[in-house]
Amino acid sequence: AREGIAATEFALVLPLMITLYFGVITFSDGFAVKQRLQFLARTAADLVGRLPSSPTGALPTINAAEITNVALASAAILTPYDPAGLTIALASVVVRLNNGNLEGRVCWSAARKIVNQSTVATAAIPAHLAQNALVAVPAGFAVPGASYLVSEVGHVYTPVVGHAITGDVQLTDRVPWPVRSGQQIAWQGQAPCPAT
Prior knowledge:
By secondary structure, this protein is of the alpha+beta class. Helices cover 33% and strands 30% of the residues.
């Protein structure tokens, strides 16, 4: 009789234990992808923010090819996860006074989508990061004339286990990042944004 009770208890507890086991696997895998996305957003912004100014004192500049290279280099951070579908948007923001109020204005922005591990396509720029868009200025950058970068990344995470329950999960991260030289980074061929 005791064996029958133990078998019944095991049959009742087994589905719960299996669900808990696969839930932990799915959650930890999703958390790992989210952590990599956060690191990827910081890396993309840092790669652009490290651009040196010229010896003549001219502002550092960036172009579309360099944005593509930054996107490819940053996508490697997702390894061993598939980077296909990853979107990376980068924007340069200049802080200035407007009628006595601080405002952040997007000077330039660019976005890329990873097609596969070696192919990048131009992506739509999010409306809130479009050129001349007003953005909220983080406390650390609330100084007239300051310039900083915004990196925004997004990726659809497909759980290995439990996809039928949760479906795809959209993961995003956005980070403001300082420009190392302290100067704004200008888009090649365009005039820099006015800081006042």
